[in-house]
Amino acid sequence: MSEHRNPLPTTDAVIADPRGRVVLVMRKNEPRGWALPGGFVDWGEEIGAACRREAKEETGLDFELVAQLFTYSDPRRDPRKHTISTVYACKVAAGAEPKGGDDAEEARWFAEAEVPWKELCFDHAEILRDYFRWARTGERRRM
Amino acid sequence: MSEHRNPLPTTDAVIADPRGRVVLVMRKNEPRGWALPGGFVDWGEEIGAACRREAKEETGLDFELVAQLFTYSDPRRDPRKHTISTVYACKVAAGAEPKGGDDAEEARWFAEAEVPWKELCFDHAEILRDYFRWARTGERRRM
């Protein structure tokens, strides 16, 4: 008998600079498009550590975790598999410049008004809307 | 080659009544002791739905999810496996009486002053301390 099948834990980082811009990465793999940096949580790894590791691989940035915002688990959020993503608000110092690496072809800053909403993969538009509301009001996503 | 090994997503419910008491269950299986009701998230299942399903099996209660509080992922939180738990604050109407079922031998109400802190399994003492602070102040666990 195979073991019980579980959703796969992942993490995504919303990295902001002091001007409130956020980093998005252009994915190298399918589905192509812009996305938050992030990836899978390893066995034995705390989610915050996975967030720092994965987002650094894709952006080159060292950053600070500010708050754990929400864990997204809609089974349709990723067309490939059932993944669960724990999202962190993160910050970097002024002047930090992202540089695409690993699974990211490109990584760059976007002000809220510049976010390519229609070109965001997965449920990252929803996550980013929740993030900007939290950044303005301190209110997290509701049930 | 085996697939990448991932931590296992779980969920726990802090179910409160209008007096602020919370439900704990006495586990039937090892490790024995008091715990929050909860369990594994199934493939294809949203975490909130898993929370309602698992906690109902163990307490008999129908309840409302009030807020998603935090996702705990320290690899040492469960001595058996690396599990990640997304914790919800939940509420029931006055007069609801929990009844142990499934993996729970017993389920009952505890006021904060009655919680058997030393007999709590896993990291549930930490989760409950975070919960009571949130219930008093609205502040979630910090990074």
Characterize the structure shown.
The structure is a homodimer of 143-residue chains. With 143 residues, the first copy, chain A, is of the alpha+beta class. Helix content of chain A is 19%, strand content 31%. Chain A has helices at 47-59, 124-137, and strands at 8-16, 22-27, 34-35, 38-40, 64-72, 83-91, 104-110. In chain A, the strands form 2 sheets. A 4-stranded mixed β-sheet of chain A has the order 4-1-6-5. In chain A, strands 3-2-7 form a 3-stranded antiparallel β-sheet, with no helix packed on it. In chain A, strand 2 and strand 3 form a beta hairpin. Chain A is globular and about 45 Å long. The termini of chain A are far apart. Chains A and B meet through strand 5 of A and strand 5 of B.
What is the chain-wise order of helices and strands of chain A? EEEEHEEEH
Most extensive chain interface and residues per partner: A-B, 31 and 31 residues
Overall radius of gyration of chain A: 15 Å
Oligomer: homodimer
Give unreliable regions of chain A as ranges: none
Short description:
The structure is a homodimer of 143-residue chains. Chain A has 143 residues and is α+β, with helices and mostly antiparallel strands. Helix content of chain A is 19%, strand content 31%.
